[in-house]
Q: What sequence folds into this?
């Protein structure tokens, strides 16, 4: 028997039910210490004279009996100790494996903390750390594009003041991702709420620089770019570790109470703009025609300077042709008398047949 087993046996014998340090607890033992005993009185026996009741088992007796029952002290030979050690070793091994080896996906980065303080950042692959709770690992998806909607629900009104002292109801979203895992993990308590507040501040500053018509129409792209740049500057100053991917205005309308009147105003403005565009088109057409005529006159004038008489006569003929070209007229020179002149077909049809086809000068 080993020394350890021997000491355990002695301790069990010392506190066993068979007897205490003075022998048996009963009255008949050799070391009973009763009235007729030769040895010292047993402190576990009843007091002399039989006036008191015998005491029950002491706490030491209960403890020793439980130890004997659990660990084989009553003849088991301690056969359960190897099994306990084996189970403990398996549990310890599993704990070390599952808390020391970490599989990190390609789109993830792992933040390692030692007793809560930042230690290092693990790239994708298999990462090795000390077992928990010495070192703990927090995985972050740096490739995911997250979205913050402002307001949270489309049924909630989000009024923003424009540069011309009007109010516009805006519904927009911000796309963002993690740029620096370390800063993102430790700099911001609530990253999404911080991004929301920064977006609202940047949007109000950008909309205050445009009028209502620009905010709901032509300048929406300009507002989105302005908000994106402002948010990047502010979050960089915060060292937030956040990258702004883009800002998109989903809805920009006047307040619901005046939206009908605003639609009427907008329709009238569009009609006025349409008429202005038509007038501008007509003006351009007239201007181009006048420029063409001026260029043609310049060419005629150049020919007129080379030969004034010929040009003058040609212009006269062209003008008369334009004036009289559509008229059904017959022109006869005065000095001469034509015995016969064939009239144009239209004239012959319009006139009745004459008995004498000869036309004299006195008949004009």
A:
């Amino acid at each position: 028997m080993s020394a350890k087993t021997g000491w355990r046996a002695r301790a069990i014998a010392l506190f066993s039910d068979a007897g205490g340090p003075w022998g048996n607890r009963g009255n008949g033992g050799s070391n009973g210490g009763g009235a007729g005993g030769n040895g010292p009185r047993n402190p576990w026996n009843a007091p002399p004279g039989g006036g008191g009741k015998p005491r029950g088992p002491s706490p030491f007796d209960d403890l020793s009996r439980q130890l004997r029952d659990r660990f084989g002290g009553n003849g088991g030979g301690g056969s359960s100790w190897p099994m306990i050690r084996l189970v403990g070793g398996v549990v310890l091994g599993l704990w070390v494996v599952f808390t020391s080896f970490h599989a990190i996906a390609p789109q993830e980065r792992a933040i390692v903390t030692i007793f809560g303080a930042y230690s290092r950042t693990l790239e994708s692959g298999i990462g090795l750390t000390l077992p928990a709770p010495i070192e703990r690992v927090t995985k972050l998806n740096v490739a995911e594009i997250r979205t913050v909607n402002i307001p949270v629900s489309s049924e909630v009104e989000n009024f923003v003041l424009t540069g011309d002292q009007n109010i516009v109801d805006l519904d927009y979203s911000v796309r963002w991702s993690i740029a620096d895992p370390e800063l993102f993990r430790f700099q911001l308590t609530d990253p999404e709420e911080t991004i929301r507040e920064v977006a609202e501040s940047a949007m109000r500053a950008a909309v205050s620089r445009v009028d209502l018509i620009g905010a709901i129409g032509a300048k929406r792209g300009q507002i989105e770019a302005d908000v994106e740049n402002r948010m990047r500057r502010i979050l960089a100053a915060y060292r937030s570790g956040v990258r702004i991917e883009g800002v998109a205005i989903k809805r920009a309308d006047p307040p619901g109470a005046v939206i009908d009147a605003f639609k009427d105003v907008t329709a009238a403005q569009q009609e006025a703009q349409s008429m202005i565009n038509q007038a501008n088109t007509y003006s351009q057409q007239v201007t181009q025609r006048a420029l063409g005529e001026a260029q043609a006159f310049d060419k005629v004038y150049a020919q007129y300077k080379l030969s004034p008489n010929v040009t003058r006569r040609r212009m006269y003929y062209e003008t008369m042709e334009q004036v009289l070209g559509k008229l059904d007229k017959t022109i006869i020179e005065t000095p001469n008398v034509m015995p016969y002149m064939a009239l144009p077909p239209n004239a012959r049809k319009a006139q009745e047949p004459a008995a004498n086809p000869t036309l004299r000068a006195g008949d004009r």
